[in-house]
């Protein structure tokens, strides 16, 4: 079997891969939802959905720092990576030893394509099609929900010390736009560092979002940011729904509806 990953790299398999290591949390959850739990042999410490996998599968490090010897011991048939989540050095190191599939997702169509690739690769086309159908259905419903909602300016924070936000060419930015939020930092790079004292000059957002990941923002951080804005509403948001691009997308649109209703 020959398949291309989302970097257009060709992979060859005599049979569908059975022993899978996933180095991407959202893709680990997708594997589970595709019915492939028994084939997962290794995950990262950040693979928290479903939670029980952390006690039943081997932890092989994080998304940026892997435990190479543990990976070698597991002898995987394939390792699943992502262009943004994992470093180029990790991919280059691993592909010398095992087949590595790399995803590259910046919008929903690319997410659907990744899910379809997994369906072909792991011989679970029916399950993959069902997940994609759910995502398309809920996407269409959500687009109808937001069609008359006015656009609001927003800033989406992911880190503190230094303050960092999601910018252009990211999946987060794509979903913000889909949700009728104009990202004031869209032209500042992918994940730029920003000076919060300049936030009014750089766009003066209506809404400031503090993501639940990767930084654990607290109330004092919301207060700190609030003092720099011009009456912006500061909200804590579930970062998994804004950045996980696998099967979680089927649940994300209900969350986005509730977010709008709370604003």
What is the H/E string?
Answer: EEEHEHEHEHEHHEEHEEHEHH
Radius of gyration, in Å, reads: 19 Å
Stretches with pLDDT under 50, minimum 5 residues? none
CATH top level assignment of the largest domain: Alpha Beta
Distance between the termini: 49 Å
**Main sheet: strand order:** 5-4-3-6-7
Tell me about the largest β-sheet: 5 strands, parallel
- Tell me the name of the CATH homologous superfamily of the largest domain: Nitrogenase molybdenum iron protein domain
Q: How much helical structure, as a percent, in the residues?
A: 25-40%
CATH architecture of the largest domain: 3-Layer(aba) Sandwich
Mean pLDDT: 97
Estimate what percentage of residues fall within beta strands. 15-25%
How many domains? The number is 2
The strand count comes to 12
**Could you say what the CATH topology of the largest domain is called?**
Rossmann fold
Shape label:
globular
Secondary-structure-based class equals alpha/beta
* Number of separate helices: 10
Secondary-structure topology with pairs:
Layout: E1 2-4, E2 10-12, E3 20-22, H1 25-33, E4 40-43, H2 53-56, E5 58-59, H3 68-74, E6 78-82, H4 88-94, E7 100-103, H5 108-121, H6 125-146, E8 152-159, E9 164-165, H7 171-178, E10 181-183, E11 207-211, H8 219-226, E12 233-237, H9 239-243, H10 249-262
Parallel strand pairs: 3-4, 3-6, 4-5, 6-7, 8-10, 8-11, 11-12
Antiparallel strand pairs: 1-2, 8-9
Short recap of the structure:
The protein has 263 residues and is of the alpha/beta class.
Write up this protein:
This protein is of the alpha/beta class. It has 2 domains: 137 residues, 3-Layer(aba) Sandwich (Rossmann fold), CATH 3.40.50.1980; 114 residues, 3-Layer(aba) Sandwich (Rossmann fold), CATH 3.40.50.1980. It is built from 10 helices and 12 strands. Helix 6 packs parallel to helix 10. The mean pLDDT is 97.
